From TrEMBL:
Record: residues binding L-glutamine: D137
Catalytic reaction list: L-aspartate + L-glutamine + ATP + H2O = L-asparagine + L-glutamate + AMP + diphosphate + H(+)
PANTHER family from the UniProt entry: ASPARAGINE SYNTHETASE (PTHR43284:SF1), ASPARAGINE SYNTHETASE (GLUTAMINE-HYDROLYZING) (PTHR43284)
Family the UniProt entry places it in: Belongs to the asparagine synthetase family.
Keywords, comma-separated and alphabetical: ATP-binding, Glutamine amidotransferase, Nucleotide-binding
EC number: 6.3.5.4
Keyword ATP-binding: yes
Protein name (record): asparagine synthase (glutamine-hydrolyzing)
Organism: Rhodonellum psychrophilum GCM71 = DSM 17998
Length: 670
């Protein structure tokens, strides 16, 4: 896990920008830093920085820096710069320094992430005659690209974003992993210079940066709580490479323009073969793939920890590792990290205790409170780059902070399971829809017998969809706009300063017209997983920790998407395949849970009873910082109504608070 930086231009670049881009994300890689520059005449310059180990300057490596950045006065001009910050996870020696090149110095890479099956790919390349000097996955990625070109991506199991410069062809290849676990943003400056990096804040220190609001994305966030659902960001002109996409820049004909989007290729296109076996066979296959994924994700030369919420996903990871330890297949120390609440109504600790009492593990708990939340807020806004949606992001920040204090550098989490294992309730609605469409009245009766009145909302949703084919373009927006809460939000904003198209951001996707596979891919690539992955990346990297997500091994995801819907969502339980596959591994009470909460806060209690004035003060500050977008009197009256119970509690108040804080922190202009 690391941080990457890059600059590309037709005209000479300001090389000092690369140093500043790297420095502002030092926390992503405090162990090492490096810089590579090239020009159209194929001249190159390799430099180190203040965090570059001194021993590397004399190392017999083709990518060893020749001098420190502040010691050189280059008279050459360069059109390309690659920067890197290293968090040492595999092969802790200086051999893992980046940017890295091959022996011919023709291919150069800066890379963030992990390719977990690098050992197997390395053996394949060695059989073809490749030699390796390090124990890193970086060297394997570079050699794989040399051997197979872009097709190497299909061999990788892992999370990654990287840039590879090929000197003889004068091209730059940018790529992001299948599910966008690792970030990659870009921006074209007013001088038509392309900048790219792991975080948006890297652009704020570059020549020509002037933060401007993307009004439509601000609308999506304030009204619907949506971020990360398109390649656009809340910063106008800042984009992200989409999950599973790549972009090839040819220096011979490149031309950039401010506000320009890169041409992207969708390299990840899974080809699914429908599984025809029994449910029992599916359980066995899932368990094998899940266990294999966990083993790969435990490959590390530094201490590994685990998040534990007490729910099915994180408990499955922890209990599987414990089982492998007891069978002497693994020897991984188990140290779990959890967020719990002192209020029993919002605490999951009893479920965490069920898990930890059945395994051999050390457990660390953090307890959220309002004073810590308020104190952490400026740091969290800075690290997140864009506003977030709920206090769950704050809890994650605290959990990784605790892991860092315990010298943990890698953490396995349960993120990503809900989107393909039926964790959000949508799969159940799709299954009911199929039963209704196929007139399987007996099966519907069984469903009703099991769920009773709880099934009625699903039947209504299915009937309504069949009647009007919801959403017709714009219909979702028109329906939502009639809600009292929506009208209330409209009254809180000044449309002199916030201009947008009145459109629901997900209007173009009709979930009921697609099967569970299409819906699963939408949840994985569009909403909601991308925002959760941003939280995971920023919270972990803020504490120089690598977060790993074993559920997002693409082989596991693709297998589950090949299954019949009824294998994933059962008659009386969601996540049926995961639950049944964990029989004998999970404690029975965890396996059969139906009320999982995850990491949560007693937010309504905080706002309405214990700390209303503190939150009101935050809102007042945010109003002042919003450049006139939030109406003062209306917003404060709304908050007062929220506190006294005159209107139903919702989380709009928090989005308004974060929006103003974000505008102030990044000096965003309307």
């Amino acid at each position: 896990m690391c941080g990457i930086s890059g600059i590309v231009s037709n005209t000479p670049i300001e090389i000092g920008d690369l140093l500043k881009m790297n420095t502002i994300i030092r926390y992503r890689g405090p162990d090492d830093e490096g810089y590579f520059f090239a020009n159209n005449q194929k001249q190159t310059l390799v430099l180190g920085g203040s965090d570059t180990p001194s021993s590397i300057y004399d190392a017999a490596l083709p990518y060893a820096p020749k001098a420190k950045f502040d010691e050189i006065e280059s008279k050459e001009s360069y059109c390309l710069g690659l920067g890197h910050r290293r968090l040492s996870i595999l092969d802790l020696s200086t051999d893992g320094h980046m940017p890295m090149c091959d022996d011919s110095q023709n291919f150069w890479i800066t890379y963030n992430g992990e390719v977990y099956n690098f050992i197997e790919i390395k053996e394949e390349l060695q059989a073809k005659g490749y030699a390796f000097r390090s124990g890193t996955d970086t060297e394997v990625i570079l050699s794989a690209y040399i051997e197979w070109g872009e097709n190497c991506l299909n061999k990788f199991v892992g999370m990654f974003s990287f840039a590879i410069y090929q000197k003889d062809k004068q091209t730059l290849f940018l790529v992001r992993d299948r599910y966008g676990i690792k970030p990659l943003y870009y921006w074209v400056s007013p001088k038509d210079v392309l900048y790219f990096g792991s975080e948006i804040k890297q652009f704020t220190v570059c020549d020509g940066w002037d933060a401007k609001l993307n009004h439509q994305k601000a609308h999506d966030y304030i009204f619907y709580g949506l971020t990360d659902h398109t390649e656009e960001t809340m910063f106008k002109g800042v984009f992200q490479l989409k999950p599973g996409h790549s972009s090839l820049i040819d220096f011979s004909n490149m031309k950039f323009k401010q506000g320009q989007k890169l041409t992207q290729k969708h390299w990840y296109k899974p080809s699914l073969t429908r599984f025809k076996g029994s449910f029992e066979e599916a359980k066995d296959k899932f368990k094998d793939l899940f266990t294999s994924s966990i083993k790969l994700h435990l490959r590390s030369d530094v201490p590994v920890g685990f998040t534990l919420s007490g729910g099915l996903d994180s408990s499955s990871i922890v209990c599987t590792v414990d089982k492998l330890n007891k069978e002497n297949i693994l020897s991984s120390d188990l140290h779990t990290f959890s967020s719990v609440n002192e209020n029993e109504l919002f605490s999951e600790k009893k479920w965490m205790d069920v898990v930890t009492s059945n395994i051999e593990a050390k457990s660390t708990y953090v307890y959220p409170d309002v004073s810590t939340l308020i104190k952490t807020l400026p740091k969290l806004i800075f690290h997140m780059d864009e506003p977030y949606q709920s206090q769950s992001a704050f809890l994650g920040y605290q959990v990784y902070q605790a892991a860092a204090k315990n010298n943990i550098l890698v953490v396995l989490t349960g993120q990503g399971a809900d989107e393909f294992l039926s964790g959000y309730g949508l799969f159940k609605k799709l299954r009911i829809k199929d039963l209704a469409n196929n007139f399987q009245l007996t099966e519907l009766q069984i469903e009703f017998d099991k769920k009773g009145i709880k099934l009625i909302p699903d039947l209504i949703a299915v009937f309504f969809n069949q009647l009007v084919h919801l959403p017709l373009f714009g219909l979702r927006y028109r329906l939502v706009s009639r809600r009292a809460n929506f009208k209330k939000i409209l009254s809180l904003l000044n449309f002199k300063f916030l201009k947008f198209e009145p459109k629901h951001p997900l209007d173009d996707f009709d979930q009921f017209r697609h099967d569970h596979v299409v819906n699963s891919n939408h949840q994985l690539s569009t909403n909601p997983l991308p925002r959760y992955l941003r939280w995971e990346d920023r919270n972990s990297m803020a504490h120089s920790i690598e977060a790993r997500v074993p559920f997002l091994d693409h082989r596991l995801v693709e297998f589950c998407q090949s299954l019949p819907l009824e294998y994933l969502d059962g008659k009386d339980k969601s996540k049926m395949l995961l639950s049944e596959s964990m029989e004998g591994i999970l404690p029975k009470s965890i396996q059969d849970r139906r009320d999982k909460k995850g990491f949560i806060t007693p937010e309504e209690d905080w706002v309405k009873s214990k700390n209303p004035q503190e939150f009101r003060n935050l809102l007042e500050k945010s109003i002042s910082d919003s450049n006139g977008i939030i109406r003062r009197d209306e917003a404060l009256a709304y908050f007062d109504d929220l506190v006294n119970g005159s209107i139903p509690f919702d989380f709009t108040y928090w989005r308004l608070i974060l929006f103003g804080f974000w505008m102030k922190r990044f000096d965003v202009k309307p």
